[in-house]
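Q: I'm a student working through a structural biology exercise. My instructor gave each of us a protein and asked us to get a predicted structure, then write a short paragraph describing it. Mine is Amino acid permease. I'm not confident about reading structure output yet, so if you can add a plain explanation after the tokens, that would really help. Here is the sequence I was given:
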Amino acid sequence: MPAPESRCRNGSKPLRILPAGPDLRALIARKPVARILAEQAEAEGPPLARNLSAFSLVCIGVGATIGAGIFVLTGTAAAQYAGPALVLSFLLGAIACAFVGLCYAELAAMIPVPGSTYTYTYATLGPLCAWIIGWDLVLEFAMAAATVAVGWSGYAQSVLADLGLALPAALAGAPGAGGLVNLPAAGIVLALTALLVRDNRDAARANAALVALKVAIILAFVGVGALHLTPALWSPLVPQNTGTFGSFGWSGVLRGAGVVFFAFIGFETVATAAGETRTPQRDAPVGLLGSLLLTTILYVAVAAVLTGLVPYRDLDVADPIAKAIDAIGLGTFAIVIKLGALIGLTTSALTALYGQARIFYAMARDGFLPDAFARVHPVTRTPALSQGLIGLVTALVAAFVPIDILGELVSIGTLLAFILVCTAVLVLRRTEPARPRPFRVRAAPVVAGLGILSCLALMAGLPGDTWIRLAVWLAIGLAIYAGYGRRRAGLKRGRAAQYERLPARPPP
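A: Happy to help. First, here is the predicted structure for Amino acid permease. I'll explain a few features afterward.
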């Protein structure tokens, strides 16, 4: 029986609506880019405010990226995996991100709407894959925000201890981590949520100011440390492998790249802001690639200085940069470094919360989530209700879940999202070759292919239990999709959702 037809508001060609029943073809029925853009233009209610600039996007990317990775993971990766070759691990991670970043730039300029990877996947692989990646992005944004908030709490308590102050133990950590509730972690999430609910312009200005201060502190560390280097600590650059894959040697460089890849997570948050940018076709690529270049330079500089100040085996501590400062006899400067870490973690949490609200906004617009997540406040022009709910849930997670459990849920999910972004570029080049591309990746099959291979290589370097956790998380997501998301999206009230099935073979 043929599917019912309806027409768009503007009288364009009939729309084909797939039934919500068990039609497996509906699971791979993609939504064309033209329909995505039309739905954004025809949306009821106030739209999201478009008031961000290219500079705002660069600050969002840098603010999202430079956080726990540079202040914590550098020491772990050097001590356990790569040694002085940590600089090579960062470069490998940056190369993989560059391939992915170019793909993000093409898609963000071509499809400047909220949703980022979720929206690109819907346009290329259909609703099932879109739901999977939307669920996966919860790991990248909400769980990452909670992880960063717990790290922020640790640094804040360290600064308080330096000042002779301390919180009661019951309020200083989650159950299982020596306390009853992590009050500082929940508090910073709620404070940042209040800022995001109010106005994205105010949030962008606060983020830009914090990013400038954070970069200044990092540059101060690099400058001071460069005057006290011990070049002998860099030899050998690649320590001999211990006989175990990933334990030093070139396999350790690869394993180290997979670990420090967490430090690059965040630059793609720029793509979620494309729908709130004044000139997204120009500004989104600048924000994506500019923030990635700046963070790579800072990471490589910090890794080189860190391993040139302290023997790499001594860097397996929670605060490796503070340890390096102690090694050169400037203990008081460690307080400044801790403040820099606090600022870095603040901007990371801010942008992660921002990105999660925009992902949920796009998913709710398609019917996968309740309508509340798609409501835009008429005054602030932000998804205020959604942002508030996300902030509340994230604060509860940060308050009651230890950081080691949270941290295990992030990196591999982001690599999966990156693979789908590269795949989206290849698919759209075949299915919609004539669509205007304000930013066009040169040699797209090569760049996207290398991006996919790079991410797969980094995923292969991660421990096996990380894959198990990802599989469990995705299984939970599929259960939610089967029981709620699939049918609700098909029955979305007042919407005529147009789907176009992917052809069995790409057109010539």
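A: Here are two points you could use in your paragraph. The beta strands are 5-6, 15-16, 29-30, 500-501. The chain has a mean pLDDT of 82. It's a good idea to check both against the output above yourself.
Q: Great, thank you!
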